[in-house]
Automatic annotation (TrEMBL):
Belongs to the cytochrome P450 family. This is Cytochrome P450. Keywords: Heme, Iron, Metal-binding, Oxidoreductase. It holds the Pfam family p450. It comes from Tegillarca granosa.
Length: 178
């Protein structure tokens, strides 16, 4: 919730230390609504539509974060060597420093670990878009207005792009040529 509040609204909160923060209290109210309440918000006035989109953003943010953290925990549990490397990097790089954005951004192995978690178990199994113009890709004509579905799961497990694609290997990020 703290990251969503910071990213979406520019608010600095600490929901763990201050559960009575007004943002935290209002966010909890969002999850006590019924589906009908949610639909009603989406069909009302412009201000309410903005409010409804904010709710969608927050709910989607929770879901994708939950999925990523679940698979990160699973991966650590099933790859004790990776877990040990992460512990060593955190102990070495953070030592007695207070945890903060700047020093977390210096944790290269953590970045490789999370990137590999997202490659194998990304929270969005498909992405839908509408073609803005007529286009031909690899001989396939896609007309303007057509629904286009992209599957990151398929791309992220394609051996043409990822050698041994089903293997969890954070170090593959060191050799990656982007």
């Amino acid at each position: 919730m703290d990251n969503i509040a910071s990213t979406a609204f520019g608010l600095e909160i600490d929901s763990q230390k201050n559960p009575n923060d007004p943002f935290v209290k209002h966010a909890k109210m969002l999850f006590s609504w019924t589906f009908a309440d949610f639909v009603m918000i989406l069909v009302c006035l412009t201000r309410t539509e903005i409010h409804g989109n904010t709710i969608v953003f927050m709910v989607a943010g929770y879901e994708t974060t939950k999925i990523t953290l679940t698979f990160a925990a699973y991966t650590l549990a099933t790859n004790p060597d990776v877990q040990e490397k992460l512990i060593q990097e955190i102990d070495r790089e953070l030592a007695d420093q207070e945890l903060g954005y700047e020093n977390v951004m210096n944790l290269e192995y953590l970045d490789m670990f999370l990137s590999e978690v997202l490659r194998l178990w990304g929270p969005a199994p498909r992405i839908n878009r509408v073609a803005a113009t007529d286009i031909t890709l690899n001989g396939i004509k896609i007309p303007r207005g057509a629904d286009v579905t992209i599957s990151p799961v398929v791309v992220h497990r394609d051996p043409e792009y990822w050698p041994n694609p089903d293997k969890f290997d954070p170090e593959r990020r060191q050799q990656a040529q982007w």
